[in-house]
Design a protein that fits this description.
The protein contains eleven helices and no strands. The chain is mainly α. The longest helix has 36 residues. It is found in: Cell membrane; Membrane.
Amino acid sequence: MRQLIVLGIVGLIAQLIDGSLGMAYGVTSTTLLLATGIAPATASAAVHFSEIGTSLVSGISHHKFGNVDWRTVLILAVPGFIGAFAGATFLAGLNGDAATPWISGILLALGVYVVWRFLALGGARPTFKGRPGKGLLVPIGLVGGALDAIGGGGWGPVGTTTLLSSGRLEPRKVVGSIDTSEFVVAVGGSLGFLFALGSQGIDWSIAGALLVGGIIAAPFAAWLVKILPAKVLAIAAGGIIILTNARTIALSLGATPPVVTTILIALALAWVSLLVHVIRLERKTRREEAQAEPVPADA
């Protein structure tokens, strides 16, 4: 019972991060599961099955708060399903270690761009022109779905990062659309795991505990996305992208644990400083907008 409670908390934390920043459910939950001593294969399979339920509740919650662009979701869903199923069945035997640093390098660069793009606005409000087309969304779905199944995470980092950097959708709709379409990706990946491993490879108690924790967190995370200003949400997501991929790159280059820890602490401090700066700018902008509003004449 104690282990199931711990697993429920793991699912809650992972979904809170994923539902509010559009990424990291797989990375967070798998990492925390491994830290509790659960075997990697067991952890990966359980995470993918729990995502079916958590992403469904998350999508409903995001829709309720107006965070979903359904055209984006519909275009992403089919290639995401195909990519996830293929990744879980035909590509699962491939060694992705060599490609990981390169993928992380691209995502890191996009994360830096996201942070820079919104910092460059200063106190101005961000504008979002146009909507992402099929030429962008279909490759995101295929690549993100395949990476998600192969590496235990990738749908959010690839989809959220690319859409944020494109400047086509406001951050809350990027997060809501990626989280909503993740349901279809989770179904595709889970079917692939069943096809490749069989039901005996799934620990349903772990998946169930993660699911309960994730369901509890999903509505609250969607509400956070609704109320957070665009710049704050973008800087928060960009920071997660940079921290996650900087760690992967440092480890792949052979950095020792103390060096990796030092790098992450320095980046985290810079990230927190930027968040504080952006929050102050947002408050200043709101005060100026309030002062600029005409005062209604007394009747």
